[in-house]
Design a protein that fits this description.
mainly alpha; 9 helices; disordered N terminus
Length: 191
Amino acid sequence: CWVCLVFGGCLFFCLLQHIYNFFSASTHRWSILTSLLKSNAKTVKSLSVTRWSSRNDACVSLNEFWDVIIQVLSTIELDKTEKSETICEAHGLRIQLEKLEMAFMAVLWGFLLNRLNAVSKKLQDVNIDVCTVLELYDSLIHLVNSQRDAFDEYEEKALSKVKNKTYQSEKSIKRKKQFVMMKLAVNSLNE
C-alpha cells in the first residue's frame, strides 16, 4: 500500500482500522457510539483492500466525530462492568487518538484523501476527455506541492483537536537528554 511507505501514515491507518474493529466487534460498543452521533451521521468506517476511497471515508468520519469517539472510549474505560481486556483496548485507542501526531495525520490525510477522492470520481466519468484528465492530474500535482508549505496550518488544526500540545518525539528527545545529563552527573560524581 502506498500509504505505508510513510511510517506515520501506516500507523495512522492501522489505528483507523483498529478503531473500526473495536466498535464493530461488539453491538454494545457500537450502540454506545451511535447513541452519541447525530441520527443521520456517518459512523466509523472500515478500510477496504480493494477500495482505496474507503480511507477517505474513514478519515472523514474520524475527523467529524473525533471528540465523540474519544468520549465513548473514555466511557468504556471507566465502565467497571466491561472486561479488563476491553477497558485496556479502549484506553490504548484513546491514548493514541490524544497524540498530536495522530491528530495531525487525521487532518492532513483527511484533506489530501478528500481531494484525491473527488478527482478520482471525476476521472471515472465515461464522458471525460483527455484535456480534462491532464488538467485534473496537473491540479493534483499542484495541490500536493502547495501543501508542503502548509505544515503550520495543519498543525494548528491538529492542536485544536488534542489537549496534549507536544509531539511524542519531542518528549522522547527531552527524556534522552535528561538521561544523558543524569548519566554525566553520576559519572562526574564517581570520578
